[in-house]
Design goal:
By secondary structure, the chain is of the alpha+beta class. The protein has 3 domains: 37 residues, no CATH class; 79 residues, Phage tail collar domain (heat- and protease-stable fragment of the bacteriophage t4 short fibre, domain 3), CATH 3.90.1340; 67 residues, no CATH class. The chain is built from 5 helices and 8 strands; from the N terminus they run ααααββαββββββ. The strands form 3 sheets. A 3-stranded antiparallel sheet has the order 1-8-2, with no helix packed on it. A 3-stranded antiparallel sheet has the order 3-6-5, with no helix packed on it. This is Tail collar domain protein.
Length: 259
């Protein structure tokens, strides 16, 4: 758009703007040529037409209506930003505080399906983070150390319920199971009959056809040597076992929003 001073011989002031002049001082007023008015007219017509309106000589509100349509209505989806490409979209969202995971509070851990976290997120791997660079994250983790969730399950804090009493938030707990105990002893004196059936099932097994002989020193004088049978408990005969207790699971990469 041109100023009145851009048009030659219009007597605009030194700033290229209008002046009323000063007759007594010999300063003439600015001339108003058709070229300048046509410039203004074309500018306004462009606004109306880009707003999707058809010029109406009987409607003096079309410029306002066009501006509302272009900038204020919710139907405007900012398609020009989308057309500008991924970099423009990312930068716009960042400027508006609407980056990836912006609806998630800083400090919340989430499972992530790849080894590399998105921008603005860190791995929950027990690492030290910069509290100056990530002040909001430091409010959640004042120690400046992220929880190490590699290979771990998250458990809800007891908070006075009494199910997992005595725990602090972010405290670590080792694996454990409820105790399993019991005992069986049998003796079959001086006979070849079975004390325990050899057809043991599930977690149990028997040792030997008749069991092991008791040592002669353990047998009373004058009593025929008897037989001891042994019964063993082995959970691996019935269920999958490992060096830890765990449910079925899928491995995700735990990450935390840092900014």
């Amino acid at each position: 758009m041109q100023k009145i001073g851009d048009i030659p011989n219009t007597r605009a002031d030194s700033n290229g703007e209008f002046t009323d002049g000063n007759v007594a001082g010999g300063v003439p007023p600015t001339l108003l040529p058709a070229e300048w008015f046509n410039t203004i007219q074309r500018e306004l017509v462009t606004v109306v037409q880009d707003g999707g309106l058809t010029l109406d000589p009987n409607d003096d509100t079309q410029v306002l209506a066009a501006l509302k349509k272009l900038f204020l209505q919710s139907g405007n989806n900012l398609s020009e930003i989308k057309d500008a490409g991924p970099t423009a979209i990312t930068q716009t969202l960042a400027n508006l505080g609407l980056g990836e995971g912006s609806a998630i509070p800083v400090g919340v851990p989430l499972p992530w399906p790849t080894a590399t976290p998105p921008e603005g997120w860190l791995k929950c791997n027990g690492a030290i983070f910069d509290k100056v660079k990530y002040p909001k994250l430091a409010l959640a983790y004042p120690s400046g150390i992220l929880p190490d969730l590699r290979g771990e399950f998250i458990r809800g804090w007891d908070d006075g319920l009494g199910v997992d009493a005595g725990r602090e938030i972010l405290s670590i707990q080792g694996d454990a199971i409820r105790n399993i105990s019991g005992g069986i002893q049998g003796r079959n004196e001086a006979t070849s009959a079975r004390l325990f059936s050899s057809n043991a099932t599930g977690v149990f097994r028997t040792d030997g056809q008749f069991g092991s002989y008791a040592a002669s020193a353990d047998v009373a004088v004058g009593v025929t040597d008897d037989r001891l049978a042994e019964l063993f408990f082995d959970a691996s005969r019935s269920v999958p076992t490992a060096n830890e207790n765990r449910p079925r699971n899928i491995a995700f990469n735990y990450i935390v929003r840092a900014a």
